[in-house]
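Lab notebook, bench 4. The sequencing result for the construct came back, and we need a structural model before the next group meeting so we can plan mutations. Quick request posted to the team channel:

Model the 3D structure of this chain.
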Amino acid sequence: MAMSFDSYMKDMVKPMREDLTRLGITELLTPEQVEEAIEKSKDGTMLLVVNSVCGCAAGQCRPGVAKALQNETVPTYTYTVFAGQEKDATAKAREFLAPYPPSSPSIALFKNGELAHFIQRHQIEDRSADMIAGDLIGAFEQYCK
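Done. Here's the predicted structure in token form:
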């Protein structure tokens, strides 16, 4: 029995999605959902995780986000897009990450609809989850109070 590529990918990335959604992070699946989230964040703070299938997403990014969200001070809203999966939603999210080039995984913190803090892939791949969590907690303390 042959399995379609789309079905295979959905099955393969399901646990990668769940690493974030089980934390209460909402997936943004369309460009319209991204725009709505950005609009909503104009009245608070928003964490946006650009998820990925790569090893640094699994070993450092997602665990770092999970640890950071245990902090007392956290963003008002938490969202994720999945690079390589919901391509249109990811492309729309990246419009709000300028002037930074596309980077996945990556982690953005917005305050009142404006990008306040950004962690690019190159700042994830050679750092531990604890270091990433520390970076995020520092940003939470600075921008989310």
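The radius of gyration is 15 Å.
Will bring this to the meeting.
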